[in-house]
Structure formats: structure tokens, C-alpha cells
Amino acid sequence: MIFSLQKINKYRINNSVQLLANDKIKFFHYNKFMLQRLILKYLILFFCILTLFSCRQKPAPKAVNGILDIRNVDLVNGQIINLEGDWEFYPAEFIDSARLLEEHQANQFQKIPKTWQEEIGYATYHLKILLKPTQKLKALKINRISSSARIYANGQLIFELGRLGTDKKSSTPQSRLAIVPVHQANADELSITIQVANFHDGAGGIINPLCFGTLENIIKDRQSKLLFQFFLFGSLLILGLYHFFLYYFRKSDINLMILGILCFVFSLRMLIYNESIIYEIMPIIDFSLGAKLGYLTFTFGLILINFFLYFIYPDIYHKKVLYVFISVSLFYSLLIIVTPPLIFSSILLYYQLFSLICGLYLLYVIFSSAIKKKSNSLLMLLAFVIVLVSSFNDIVNSMLKLAVIELTPFGILSFVFIQAVVLSRRFNLALTKSEKITAKLEDINISIKRFVPQEFLSFLKRENIQHVKLGDHSEQFMTIMFADIRGFSHLSETMTPEENFRFLNSYLSRMGPIIRKNRGFIDKYLGDGIMALFPQSADDGVQAAKEMIEELTVYNKNRQTMGYQPIDIGIGLHSGQLMMGTIGEEERIDGTVISNAVNLASRLKEQTKMHNKSIILSERTLQSLKNKDQYQLNNLGSCKLKGKSEAINIYALN
Q1: Strand ranges (DSSP E) for 418-540?
Q2: In 10 A of CB 217, how many CB atoms?
């Protein structure tokens, strides 16, 4: 029995690689159309949701010279007005609201939403709203004001944000949203006065416009926005957990962990911005901590996306460029952690410009991968374009101080969703490959069993051939059979090589099943000879030898019918201890059986020619038989075999 682990493994790997390549091409063409349709449907759904839940209202009246005329707006039927436009503006003054009810002589107006030109300071805003009388209770939705304020309606204080002051020491910042009922004293007019101070943030003033409508409609609008924000938060959180679980089972794919962290980072961002849910869930978070967390979600998000693309395209994304992007982001993150919001927010613009440059380089990386036809490069390009466009929108809006919906969480959700589609496609492809490879390996294993008997592996206590090592061995008591064709050398000279192989295969195909039927296995073929082992009992070997002679009689009749000469065989049987194991060297291993019992069985086969008997067995085999009476045995006496110092008794089976 001879086998080569190296050749077998090489054969298996080469065939598996070819199979993988063919399956990949077939699978891609089969699923390409369906995948494109899935992405298209998702994008349509994404933009529909974005349109439905946009916080930008339909075109509505805007304030002109401090007066907002909404007498033609039907607030009762659900419309909500953003208090945008020109407000009266009194910089560096806290004007009494009662005074503003009587005097409207402002020389300066400020567009809302818009931040101050200077980072710090304080001022007063005033707006007069003209509206038609209704019986519904009105309300104001207070959005982002930086960073402390008092709000008056018709001269009455209705809301306070933090502690108002004329310097940093006397003011305390706060960040939260609120819905405040407004009791309308004058049926057709409402006066809104807002005193604002900012000494703690890089942008001061009314950042997002206040919303005005009936209390019922304001609450419904807030609930719908909270519902959608929780939807985005939950989606990102679930996708994050999903990728973490995948990473737990597949730790070799670091990008699974990166995507999981990215989802968690932006799910946190969803809680901080827009409706500022985090301040309601965790009131202990103050203005400074909330600002730091919000800014860090930006920097860490950029870091994670850079790492993600670097690990996907390490041959395109230059490592030195990665070091630059990560170093700058980490440096700014450190500034965010150790400095107050007024400092790190004032240099945000520079980091935003840096992130745009970073985004352009990442776009170059993905375009290059698409040109080189990297796997899933088109899907990656689509995902990153969505992220880049949404991030660019938010950065530009932040630079221009515009109050619009933040699109980055949508972009990240789209990015992660597309990555999940890519991942599912990859896993599906891997599963298909695995099934094909499994089927192929089963065929290979069946083929290997024809070279290496499974019984041989079992006695070495190895599950398969891959586990076999040089020097593995096992000692067993077995019955050994040697059988060959008499006069085969002369017979083979009368045949061509092709006829020789056909003849041997025809003969061996009749003998092999008989050996297996009697619980034996063929250890090796020796040209026209057979070496077989019977591990269960000597009776199996003797019975197999008897049936082989009977089968030979039938075989010879067929040969005579076809004009061929009949053949004779000789079979020697001996029982004893033997050593099974592997010999050779690391690059070439053979399986073999070594013992005196094996040599003795081979010598007994030679004795069949001298005594003109078909089957000869040793006295040791005879003693091992459980049913001696069912066999007709003839004692051939004592015989000294070649290479043996002591004579043994041998018996012929009739």
C-alpha cells in the first residue's frame, strides 16, 4: 500500500480552486440582475423616507422686518410654521420683553436660522406674529439655541435654557429641546422675545428655527420625528450587533468588527443630534459632555471608514496616507477630549475641510478598485458615494450655518446596509462554494479510499488521511493472506501491455469483493499478487481463500469460453502479531506492514507450488480457527521455510 499525502493534497487543492473560480463566475452572472434590483429598490425607499420625514416644511411665510404674517395659514389642520426670516436683533443687549411690546424701532435685523458673526456674546431677538384667532392652544417647539436663553411670549417668561449671563462666569450653557404651550392674550397677534447668550460654543445664536403651531400638532410632529429617529437608531444598533456576532464567529475578517463599531458610533450620534434624545434619556449629560460626544462621533466615524477601506484594498490605499488621516483625526479627537467646546468647535471648519480631502482620496481608492475590477467594487462605489454625498451635505450646511436635516446617519445606514448585502452575497457564494467543495471532497475521499484502506487509518486511530503522520504505527493480531497467479511471468509474455492490465483487473475485480465480504481488506497489490489482512478472525481468512478458489473455477470457465488459457493461483495464510505504520520521509510517506508473520505468510504461498496445492495455512492459523470441523484439512507435515530456523507444521485446505 503506497500513497503520497503531498500529491493527494495538491490534487485536491488544484481541483478545488478551479471549482471555486467556475462557481464564482456562474453565481455572479446568475445573481447580478437580482442584486441590482434590490439596491435600486432600497435607494428608492431611502429617498422616499427622506422626503417624508424631512424636517424642512413646505414653502411657508417668512418674517420680514421682524413681522411674520401667517393669517392665511391654517394652523388647526396640521400645518406647522418655522419661525424663519428677519427677526429684530439687538446685539450686546438684553432688552426687556415688555418694552419690545410697545416699541418696534429696531435698526438691525438677523436672519433666522443663522449664527452670530462672532463666537461669543449675547443679544436679544424679537418677532411679532400676525395670525388669525383660533380656539386651539398654541405651542412653540424650542430647537437648538446656543448656548443659554430665555424666551418670552407676550411679555411672559415661558422657557429658560441654562443660565443667562453677560459673560462666561455668569452664564451656564445647556442643550435640550422642549415644547412650550403659548397662551395667546391677543387673539390676532403674538410677540416672541428671545434673549440669548453664548460663551461656551463656537456658534452662537438661534441655530435652528423655532416651530409654531397648535400644541396637538407640535406634539404629533415631535412624536413622528422621534419615531423615525428611533427607527434609524434601532436599525444602526441592530446592524452593529449583527456585525459583532459575525465577527465573533469569523475573527479573521476585521472589517466585520469595524462595521459593528461604526454602527454603534453613529447610533450614538443619532441620539445626540436632531431631536437630542440623549439629554432626555440621560439628564446627567451636560452641555460640554454632549458636545464632546457629538464631535467624537464625527472623528471616529472618519477613522473607522478609512480603516475599513484600507483593509479591503490594501494594495491601492497607501499606508502612509492612512497614517496621515488617522494621525490628524486622532489629534483633533484629543483636542476634543481635553479642551472646552469653545476651542474645539472653533476649529471644526478646518477639520471639515480636511475630511472632504480625505473623502476625495477614499473616492479615488474605490474608483481605482472598480477600474481594476476588484470584487464588489461597484457596490462599494455606490455605498461610498452615498456616504460622501450625505457627509458633504452636512459639512457644507454646517459651514453655512443652515438648519437642515442631517443626512450623515442616512448615508451610514445606507453604507452599512449595502455592506450587509455584499456580506450576504459573499456568504451565499461561500455557502455555494462550500457545498460544491464538500461534494467534490467526498468524491476525492472515495477515490483516496481506493488507494488507502479506511481500515488502515482506523488501526492507526486516524479519522482521515490528512491526520496521518510519519511514524504512526499500531500493533495488531491478524491473519495475513498472500495470493498470486502461478506462471504469470510466462503468461504475461504472450500478451500486450494493454492486455496484461485488462487481464489483471478482470481477475482482481473478482477476488477483491470476496475479501471484503469476509471482513478483510486488501493491504496492497503486488503485481499479480494480493496481500490481504483479516483483523477479526482466522475463519474469515480461510473462508475467503476457499471462496476465491471457487470463484476462480467460474472465472476459468469464462476464459475457456473466450479461448483463453485457465489460470491457477496459490494462497498462503498465517496468523500472528504484526506492526502497521508509516515509513519514509516528510515529502513521501508509505504505509506498510512489518512482522515475521507477514514473511511467513508469503513463504507459505510459495509452498503451494511445491506441494501443488491451492491453499496452505500454518498451524498457528489452524489453532486460531473457531470452526475447524467445517473445513477439510490435509496435514502436509513439518516444513522448514526459507529464512526460518525452525520448522512449522503446514496444512492444505481441500
Answers
A1: 473-485, 521-526, 529-534
A2: 20
Calpha distance 434→444 (Å, rounded): 15
> In degrees rounded to 5, what are phi and psi of residue 520?
-110, 175
CB 134 within 8 A of CB 207: no
| Predicted model pTM | 0.65
Helices marked H in 497-587: 497-517, 538-561
What is the distance between the alpha carbons of residues 266 and 272, in angstroms, rounded to a whole number?
10
The predicted-structure confidence for 560-572, as pLDDT tens digits, reads as follows: 888 888 999 999 9
Return contacts of 95-98, CB within 8 angstroms, 24+ apart: 95/124, 95/126, 95/193, 95/195, 97/152, 97/155, 97/156, 97/157, 97/191, 97/193, 98/155
* 608: Cβ contacts below 8 Å, ≥ 6 apart: 486, 570, 571, 572, 614, 615, 616
The helix, strand and coil proportions of the chain, stated in percent and rounded to the nearest 5, come to 50, 20, 25
Residues 79 and 73 sit within 8 Å (Cβ to Cβ):
yes
Cis peptide preceding 113, ω within 30 of 0: yes
Q: How far apart are CA 596 and CA 578, in angstroms?
A: 8
pLDDT in tens, 35-93: 445 555 555 555 555 544 444 445 679 999 999 999 888 877 778 999 999 999 999 99
Q: Are 103 and 75 in contact (CB under 8 A)?
A: no
> In 3D, which of 580, 605, 574, 575 has the Cα closest to residue 592?
580
10 Å CB burial of residue 624 (0-12, 13-18, 19+) is buried
151 phi and psi angles, rounded to 5 deg:
-125, 130
Question: Taking the chain, what is the end-to-end CA distance rounded to the nearest angstrom?
Answer: 31
Angle in degrees, 0-180, between the axes of helices 319-338 and 287-312, rounded to the nearest 10:
170
Name the amino acid, one letter, at 84.
E
Let me know: does 72 contact 126? Beta carbons within 8 Å: no
